[in-house]
Amino acid sequence: MTVERNKTIFHTPPAAVPNGNVDVSGGGRWKIWQDAGTKIDAPILGNGDLLAALAGNSRFPQFWITTNDFWQMESAPNWEFFHDNSSAKCDPAMGAGSPRPVGRMVFDIPALENASWYTEQDFLTATTTTVLTDEEGRKCIMKSWVAAMENVLVIEFDTELELDLEYDFYFPDEAGKGCDCTVDIWGSGESEEIQNGMFVGMISGRPVQVKQIRGNIVSGYRQFSDHVDIPTKDGFAGCFIENPKERDMTSRIASKKLAAGEKATFVLPVRSWAKYSRPYEYAVSRARWMTYAEVEKLRSQNLSWWKRFWSVSEITLDDPLIEERYYLSKYMLASVSRDPEYPPNILGISTFDRPAWNGNYKINYNHQSPYLNLMVSGHFQQSDPHDSPYLKLMDITGEMSERLLEHEGLYYPLGLGPHGMVSEALLLHMKSPALHGALNMIFRYRLTEEEEYARKVYPFLRGIADFWEKDLVCRDGVYHVTGDGMHERTDSNILEHGVPEDPVNTLGYLKTFFTWMPVISSVLDLDEEKREKWTEIAEHLADYPKGTIREIQENPTLWTEAEVSLEELLPEELMDTEIYYDEGVGGKWSFHFPGNIMQIYPGSAIGLGSSPEKLQTAWNTVHIHALVENALGIHELEKARQSGEPVKNPHFYKAGAFNASNLSCLFFAAAARVGYDPDIIWEEMRQMILHRGLPNGYLKENPHGIEELNTIPDAVQEMMLQSHEGVLRIFPVWPVKNHPEASFRGFCACGAFEVSASLKDGMVDTVTVVSHKGHPCRLVNPWPGQYVSVLHSDGREGKYSGEMIEISMHQEEKVTFKRWK
User: CA 98 to CA 39: how far, in whole Å?
Assistant: First the structure.
């Protein structure tokens, strides 16, 4: 497997996990991400439920742990949001509902006080190896992994020097042992005292935190029972494996002596109320009676699970940097996402009690984005958790639409949590977020055409269709979107700039949504009477707003984002180039939020098969954003130099296109969808990784967590294969001159096809297609102007020519395409 040659390396201990030195006064809920709320630079381990972040230093190596289902689930303060009052529609109270860390297991190893730190994560086996080397060159090796089939963190010690270590568990508000900054409860600056039993949230609450040490077992639990809709509790127990009958159960100190050359295994089972009736007792029992044989069984299961994961699909590249980032992103997403009821939060893992944006599922693009690349690579077990927050909230969002808009349908707030919880009851004058989520579900169906999946999500899709049927405004036979902005807006912004209309992203979403709703309803034999209406809407939506740069000099955006105008950043010959605007009424352009590419991707409403006019305008939009990003970066860098302040890496002054902190995770794929220069796309990927890439897959100075894990794999996959228009395009946007060697295997394509292909010496070599549903296969000829050999799995061979190759296929039939020689 190609994954075997890829790994990620941390040469120094994490610097940003944890750091509770944050002033939370005033607007702290928005500025907190600048410090502890999002800066997770640690190696992350997980099985999609139990998560661990390796932090600390050589003296105090430690693991922050939590589970995806450990949320302080409070949405009660937001109840007024669902009533028909004006304040509810924009700036309601914030709830305390957000994911929480359980705490950190800390090892105190005095002999390694000044040791060097080196950590390597092997993707194939999901093993994290940390080498701590003392001043005499002697090593202590820690191999850590989270069992794939059970919530157990395993840490294997192998030491060349004698160690006398102690271990203990610390709750998130306890300072010390490599975590010297605690949370400032009152919002006035750094606290010098340990704030036991407290946390900082949007609304006060007190977790129950219990810990004890008996027989060298550190055990305890963290529980939220007050100020919550659903009580939550995680129990843990950590110890080195020993004969249970030989444990001194009167001991109150957790310690272990390791002789030079000795090996020892530490286990930390974690159990939650969401899955166990008595999580603390289960965790303690599991830890106490764990044996080496059981660890070996868990290890074997772990290796088998990850081998199966990697066997689903793979790529090979002649660029080691981008290939490694591709596999790193897949590893990270597989580590944090698998539980179908509890998706990972926006940051992936919680290491702080007051995460940015409440750490919730922000559904105006953040929550949806990480799952896109997983579906194409066939990793549906990791992508399916996306759906749960929508499906669990249908009752209240139906009521919300009736109360706030006085029509039926499903109307969703922006900040969701698990089990129907509303973490942040915000609308900010946006109606498209739930529709955006529906596109993920439609894409998932198109890739597999699984009827069971379609039936599961159809009630939600039907609710979204009902909403837009009633909410769209028809004028002269054209359907317009009103009261929906591309950008987040407050009431004051609406009063100043007016009510937005016809955002280009929503129009694109609606085009795709209503095109596919009749197809899915027909497959399920439901709502036949609705299909004509849905088709009519899809065919008569308002045109995408468009115009030239010259026409919007007075209204490029709704916010002051730069001290220069677009005219100053672009050459004169481009001022009359036609581009897509953000909104028909409202903002026209943004320097830092390239939302006017979202109808391209993930909207899938424009692509290489679109009309020449639409495709050119889309290409122009991507191009102008890219030019403005570079020009604005030069401008901001020069301004920084003239100010006399320290100058950052020049790359960090670029923002708004490939490097937008919002939407860079979608911009690369959108550029590929319109055939933008592949060498530019490739070089932008490389520069982003080289300058901003953290070794855990996240990006420096980007607070948006797991959406960043979509950027590279999504772009690479879209450059290798596109199928959203009903035809297969093989390496449609690829830098063949500079990167002539590449391959992919096992990619999912719309129409329930499985596609593999290779590129040799800059030419497509072989294309293999398996049809899982028996649909005809339409393939853009990978060898333009040449004949194509088509070999069926039953031995039949055909010779085809033309720009488009179309053949009939049986269910589960395999066909190989090659250039006719």
Answer: 17
